[in-house]
Amino acid sequence: MAYSYNIRNEFIDDEPPIIVLENVSKSYQKGTEAVKNISLKIRKGEFVFIVGNSGSGKSTLIKLMLKEVEPSSGKIYVNGKDLGRLRRGQVPKLRRNIGVVFQDFRLLKDRNVYENVAFAQRVIEKPLKSIRENVPAMLSIVGLSDKLNSLPRELSGGEQQRVALARALVNNPVLLLADEPTGNLDPKNSWEIMALLEEVNKRGTTVLVVTHNREIVDAMQKRVITMNKGILVSDEQKGGYLYEN
Ligand SMILES: Nc1ncnc2c1ncn2[C@@H]1O[C@H](COP(=O)(O)OP(=O)(O)OP(=O)(O)O)[C@@H](O)[C@H]1O
């Protein structure tokens, strides 16, 4: 069994958490200690905000969970896998189960909306027949059925972020990691993206959102993890935004 850590009794259900960090620290090469001795658990089905000032280590946390960067010390488990024991070749398989959305969308510029989403399905070698069903269905959920043939540059920022979200979700990930998904959006589009994230969460995907958006965090009353200078300073159920931007 991959879950060798002794934490089960701390949970009211038997299911192991989807993310576990145990005393995780990360120092970058030039000596910046981006993350300092963080321990946390996120259970399947949770919706969690990670907030904190610029440079407090939020993106580093996300990168650690994706095994994009390695911890200097500590242990990380994602979806039952001990990332420290995961070989390089197993990382793509880990990421298949994780949807990722970034502030800058990261769409393929020369591919239309349909192709951008279909690409995620091709990577995991979905049969063409499934792709032809899944991609339009996913784009309909994010409200982009009439934009299948548009290129990213022909879309608004909010629409581009919805494409990115469709791409992150089309493979039915158990976990969605969103790093400032509303960072480039106006308030109306930001709320639309958050409503979609909440919807996805209701369908069973665990959602982790890094954000600077105080209004949204305060209004949504979710679990809020606050970082300050690499330290986890607060972790509250139905929390609010503690620090100034
Ligand atoms: N590749 C890197 N090499 C060296 N230092 C880095 C690297 N990436 C991040 N850092 C440093 O680590 C610290 C935490 O950065 P991180 O990007 O995790 O913060 P953040 O909370 O996501 O910030 P922001 O809200 O501005 O995106 C910062 O001091 C940053 O300069």
Automatic annotation (TrEMBL):
GO terms for molecular function: ATP binding; ATP hydrolysis activity; transmembrane transporter activity. Keywords: ATP-binding, Cell cycle, Cell division, Cell membrane, Membrane, Nucleotide-binding. PROSITE patterns: ABC_TRANSPORTER_1, ABC_TRANSPORTER_2. The keyword Lipoprotein does not apply. It is a peripheral membrane protein. GO terms for biological process: cell division. Homodimer. Forms a membrane-associated complex with FtsX. Belongs to the ABC transporter superfamily. This is Cell division ATP-binding protein FtsE. It comes from Mobilisporobacter senegalensis. The gene is ftsE.
